[in-house]
């Protein structure tokens, strides 16, 4: 595999990051995951804007322009002969003396690499399961959720719990007991033809695909609400689905609650009509709608 490290495209086996990089030592850095269809990065400007926003919120220098960074993503895709794949852009604080002061790290580290391939057709056709975990989402008062941070321990712990529960994805509540998001996805549910999704004020990342879904709903006169929702509301929904750059729109057909026996079926246990409609509308906006995404 070829990866991009700082200013060079190299073999992954030759990639080296300093042991003094504060990204390695303290998780001090940010990232974005993007997806390409036919070497065209979808919603690039939205992803780049969010990357800059994350950098600004942690006072991290991002010296790469939109054009340069996008070009490096495409170079990695082409070097690996993967026109339709997901790539992760990581910007770490860079090397510096031990200690938490970021000002001692003048040169950030840039890494671009591909996600492993994954066929999503089964997920779309049959649906997936999620688990509402005991692990709660880090509150905004402690860590701004609009920082797409390299420090993923909160969601790693939730993912570990989800694996023990035997589900595809975790769904995290905030400290008040309201739904927030998955470990790498945003959550939607459908009731009587209307779409509901947790408000950003609940403490979740403003997902690029989440915003695309809300935009599609407005354009197609589908009512979409954002608010504070409990697990009870989710379990009573007619349909549930997740959105993310790499999943696109993934129907949820089963939900498990941490500490409870059994698993609850959503609707008739199959992907619902609104979920299919939203996904069809989303796919119609893609550069190449026939392409099946790979990666996570």
The number of strands is 15
What is the CATH class designation of the largest domain? Answer: Alpha Beta
Number of helices: 8
Q: Name the helix and strand elements from N-terminus to C-terminus, one letter apiece.
A: EEHEEHHEEHEHEEEEHEHEEEH
Radius of gyration: 19 Å
How far apart are the first and last residues' alpha carbons, in Å? 16 Å
What's the CATH topology name of the largest domain?
A: D-amino Acid Aminotransferase, Chain A, domain 2
| Mean pLDDT metric | 96
Question: What is the correct CATH architecture of the largest domain?
Answer: Alpha-Beta Barrel
Describe the protein:
By secondary structure, the chain is an alpha+beta fold. It folds into two domains: 2-116, 2-Layer Sandwich (D-amino Acid Aminotransferase, Chain A, domain 1), CATH 3.30.470.10; 121-285, D-amino Acid Aminotransferase, Chain A, domain 2 (Alpha-Beta Barrel), CATH 3.20.10. 27% of the residues lie in helices and 28% in strands. The chain contains eight helices and 15 strands. It has helices at 22-26, 44-57, 66-79, 121-126, 153-165, 208-219, 231-235, 273-283; strands at 2-5, 8-11, 29-37, 40-41, 86-92, 109-114, 128-136, 169-173, 179-182, 186-191, 194-198, 224-227, 239-244, 248-257, 264-265. Strands 7, 8, 9, 10, 11, 12, 13, 14 and 15 form a nine-stranded mixed sheet that branches. A hairpin with a 2-residue loop joins strand 1 and strand 2. The radius of gyration is 19 Å and the shape is globular. The model has no long low-confidence stretch (mean pLDDT 96).
